[in-house]
Amino acid sequence: MSHVSSKGLFYTIFASLCVLTVVTVLIARVDLGAMNTPIALAVAVTKAMLVILFFMGVKYNTPLTKVVAASGFVWLIILFGVTMGDYLTRGWLGVPGR
Amino acid sequence: MSAPNVHSDAHQAHHPKLQHHFHNMAQQLEASILGMWVFLVTEVMFFGGMFMAYLLYRTMYPDAWLAGSNELNEVLGGVNTLVLIVSSLTMALAVRAAQVGARMAQIANLILTIIFGSIFLIVKYFEYAAKFEHHLVPGAHFDPARDPAQQLYFSLYFMLTGIHALHMIVGIVLLFIMLRMAWKHQFNADYFTPMEVTGLYWHFVDIVWIFLFPLLYLIGKHH
Amino acid sequence: MTHGTVNAPSYLDAPHGIASWLLTKDHKRIGILYLISVTIFFMIGGLFAAGIRTELLTPEGDFLTADLYNKLFTLHGVVMIFFFLIPSIPATLGNFLIPIQIGAKDLAFPRINLLSWYIYVVGALFTLAAVFAGGVDTGWTFYTPYSSIASNTNVTLAALGVFITGFSSILTGFNFIVTIHRMRAPGMTWFRLPLFIWAHYATSLVMVLGTPVVAITILLVFAERALGFAIFDPRMGGDPVLFQHLFWFYSHPAVYIMILPGMGVISELVAAVSRKQIFGYSFVAYSSLAIAIIGFLVWGHHMFVSSQSIYAGLVFSIITMIVAVPSAVKTFNWTATMYKGSVTWESPTYWVIGFMGLFLIGGLTGLFLGTMGLDVHLHDTYFVVAHFHYIMVGGAIMAFLGGIHFYWPKMTGRLYPETLGKISAILVFTGFNLTFFPQFVLGYLGMPRRYYAYPEEFQILNVLSTSGAGVLGLGYALIVFYLVATLFKERNAPANPWGATGLEWQIQSPPITLNFEVDPIVTEDAYNYAGRAPKHTKAGEV
Q1: Comparing C-alpha atoms, which of C411, C398, C400, C421 is closest to residue C540?
Q2: How many whole angstroms separate alpha carbon C538 and alpha carbon C526?
Q3: For residue B104, what are the contacts with CB-CB under 8 A and spacing of at least 6?
Q4: Is B6 helix (H, G, I), strand (E, B) or coil?
């Protein structure tokens, strides 16, 4: 990786991460009903993306590295999505006799 | 299939850290970065299995998850989150210093990263000690007055944070190794591969915590 | 071209001494280390099978106790799957050939390659410890809550053994991925790669994406059992079916880890014995990727009767049908390659034909099992046992043996006796069918798997099966005998005894440590038989 990021960039990302951390703690204290969890996850994903793109430098990496980094999360989605697909659909098709 | 032809780069002058099966330092660096990312994908899937269990059981037992989360101190958790974020900053600065050959900056930032990583683990120790005291460790000594489903919550809490902590310890060991190499002037613009891959590993461990914090500590803090 | 005297010694000769082997970084030596290890475990797994088949000669449970029988089938599965099949082709032939076939001097991470072998050995020792401590009786599938709570056998030891060995697999896959991406010789574009490489690349994707999930799952079982945690325990609200989802998320793709490399070997052999470019090369290449990826979406077909939602079962069933398509594409393409090719009846040809017939049956019977309604009848019967043995033994092991034979001259510098090579292929094929075809019938008639006693009317089929196992074992023993015997003879193999294409056949047999005297530059497609003269040498008699 021949790209050298500036220290200024790192400090900016750092500040953003701190702000987002405070935000996530404060928002957790407000009752937003069913939206609390998705918002907390959205903040976490944003923080993770900042770390991945800038601290880990993926933004400046080859397309292959980007695909590899993304693949882990895609595979997690498969695991979560398909498994929950079983549990959430258990009541959908009736069983004869019940 | 083809006629073997040209002389390899090995005949040209090469860097002392160039391993013989690579043609040049650029290939070695690229292979190492790709390799670390492939390894991190395995780590994502490794933690992912536990997140799957978490996802299912939180869906099935929202009250147990709420009660469990309320036992966690979100101030300590938040402080630890910030501590890890600072350590990621110092790690990124250390790798950058290696890239530009700034030895003192490498050493200083590596030391800072080790310090912040250790602070995280110390805080974790105190959190775990409190759990033991309050009979929140799953198994024979778990508080019998609590809903048994909370044992699922705390089992996952200890597995997730415990395995995360083990990864942090490995990371700190790696940082000491990097510190020694930096001390001995081994990194510069031509060769900083170990720092680069150690940095990737460290940031990954930070990212796991970025998800663990809200998922474990911040459920229902509005109650 | 290259069988004159060469200055550099072969990888077998230098450096010298056992320490140089145990501390080697040479991918070829590591491949040999793995070959020795997996062969030992194959024999151990075979011993357990012998115990099972002996008991099943009679309808009553009279040879072994029920507990011992449970341990035998458990350990047969654990040893054969984790310590033989999964590493078999990738860690032996893959390690040996991948750098050579792409024109590199070694894998990307040679020390990690050696580490993967040591991890395998440590995991194997843990599992052997479990055997000597009295065994495990949960079935290789370790279903909870029996494995995590109720069983009083050495689950922890065995689980740790499998957990540790999983990292060997992960490191192998990780090494292959980086190597294939970053170490190809100049001119070796993706679509000039041998199909053996494509197959191992796809296998490595599965190893890297799937194995960690079973690793953490086993760790969770360990935590429940040894630390008293609650993960799958129904008394705390835990769900044993969650274990099955996590377990099969890996263990279904694992079967593709076991068969894809074999398909890679078969592609090489089919092209060589037909002296023809593989028909539809790019389709075969893409089909490896398709199997690897789609294979991650079908795991619920192991769980149709587990209380999994019928809706989810429908989806899993449909995708199971779809995952058969790329395998069918390969089989059609291999057949089309042989059609109007200059096929010679050498021993590799026997292994190829055996593979194609047996894999076909195994694969088609998978469709029976993937049909939800049928599966209700066939689940946990001998039909399932027959299905997976047709693929794993009829397919994967025949491909492994075919590959070992085909590459034996390259790896050892010796030719094996061609006639014995043919005889062993026939023995294995015959013994295999006699062992496992009756099991399809037994399963359909309702004989459950993992039972040591059965109704009297099933005895004749069981006796046939056990007899077949004897013939099969004889075939395997014959192979070990004559291959090992060649090691006591002179090196007489030319660089290219088969007249095959590929960089591996342009270097001496056995290769020098750095593989190539001069780094290759690739200018042709794979399997470019069209421009070549008919081969002069035939694999000789020893």
Answers
A1: C421
A2: 21
A3: none
A4: coil
C294/C379 Cα distance (integer angstroms)? 22
Q: Which residue ranges of chain C lie beneath pLDDT 70?
A: 1-6, 531, 533-542
Q: Give the ipTM of the model, two decimals please.
A: 0.93
In this complex, the residue of C209, C231, C503 whose CB is nearest that of residue B152 is C231
Quote the pLDDT of residue C533: 58
B contact residues 120-149, partner C, Cβ 8 Å cutoff: 138-140, 148-149
**Which residues 66-95 of A have a C-beta within 8 angstroms of B?**
68-69, 71-73, 75-76, 79-80, 83-84, 87
Mutate which of C179, C182, C309, C528 to disrupt the B interface (most B C-beta within 10 Å)?
C182
Query: Predicted confidence band at B4 (pLDDT cuts at 50, 70, 90)?
Result: very low
Does residue C170 sit at the A interface (CB-CB below 8 Å)?
no
pLDDT above 50 for A17: yes
Tell whether C3 is within 8 A of chain A (Cβ): no
Matching residue, tokens 């006693």: C453
Instruction: Tell me the count of A-C CB pairs closer than 8 A.
Output: 37
Q: How far apart are CA B74 and CA B68, in angstroms?
A: 12
Question: If you average pLDDT over residues A73-87, what whole number do you get?
Answer: 96
**Averaged pLDDT score across all residues of chain B:** 92
Tokens found for residue C43: 């024999």
Instruction: With both helix axes pointing from N to C terminus, report the angle between C459-486 and C418-445 in degrees, rounded to the nearest 10.
Output: 160
pLDDT in tens, C189-225: 999 999 999 999 999 999 999 999 999 999 999 999 9
What is the DSSP code (8-state) at residue C295?
G
User: Per the CB < 8 Å rule, is A51 touching B210?
Assistant: yes
Instruction: From chain C, pick out residues whose CB is under 8 angstroms from the CB of A66.
Output: none
* pLDDT of the residue at C495: 94
